[in-house]
Amino acid sequence: MKRIVLGGLAALGLLAVAAPALADVQWQVFERRREQCFNTLNAFAPEESIRGCSDLISMRSITGNGRAQAYKLRGDRYRELHDWDHALADYSQVIRMRGDHPGAYYRRSEVFLAQGEYARAMEDAEAVIRIAPDTPGGYRVRCEVRVAQNLELDLARQDCDHALEINAIDTAALAARGVLNLRTGANQEAWTDFDAAIFNGRRIARTLYGRGVASLRMGRPREGRADIAAAEQLQAEIGATFASYGVTPP
């Protein structure tokens, strides 16, 4: 009997040691998945970050808000990969869970804009402005939708200007206003907007091509051709995109 009791006590001791150890492993796994999903330091590729977010979503212990945030972040990674369908699905899931989430509406509006779904992009931009009127994103997307459709350009300028009043280095708003300035022949203002966007980290085909067109129009051919060549290396069809805006090099 004494041996049995001692054996039982030993088993309980092992359980007492094992339970904290298991909890510690579970916590380490959770922390690793959270780091992958949030990817604050850009240490993980989008695919790794997607796996981390998916694991968080599947955990029973995660809260409703935490799960909604994981869906939002996974949508952001899919958007980086131009996987529009999965991005839209995740943003829409966040909105079903939390109808007041401005970030999900904002990112979904960007995806709709990229797909040419202008009415849906406008609807989501309006939702952002309604929920978070002190943030620039909704105004900027609303500006871009109008610029892309060549409609209500005065209202488009007001929206881009307002976005930049809120955040003077919103590079996407600077680029959108740059396109608008090219369309209206304000070439120096366009050059300034595109150059500011590039200076603040948005060195992409759109900003380079826009600055190149502005330079050519102002009689600076060497700069203009260099920017346009760099833009076409990044995105071969960028000239066609600007032509759809009604903007072509001289």
Using brief descriptors, characterize the structure shown:
Serine Threonine Protein Phosphatase 5, Tetratricopeptide repeat; 78% helix; mainly alpha; 13 helices; 250 residues
Explain what this protein looks like in three dimensions.
This protein has 250 residues and is mainly α. The chain has a domain at 177-250: Serine Threonine Protein Phosphatase 5, Tetratricopeptide repeat (Alpha Horseshoe), CATH 1.25.40. Helices cover 78% and strands 0% of the residues. It has helices spanning 2-38, 46-58, 64-80, 84-97, 102-114, 118-131, 137-149, 153-166, 171-183, 187-199, 205-217, 221-234, 238-244. The longest helix has 37 residues, at 2-38.
**Straight-line distance between termini:** 99 Å
Dominant shape: globular
Spans with pLDDT under 50 lasting ≥5 residues?
A: 1-25
Largest sheet: none
Number of strand segments:
0
Query: What oligomeric state do the depicted chains represent?
Result: single chain
Q: How large is the radius of gyration?
A: 25 Å
- Structural class computed from helices and strand pairing: mainly alpha
What's the SSE blueprint?
Blueprint: H1 2-38, H2 46-58, H3 64-80, H4 84-97, H5 102-114, H6 118-131, H7 137-149, H8 153-166, H9 171-183, H10 187-199, H11 205-217, H12 221-234, H13 238-244
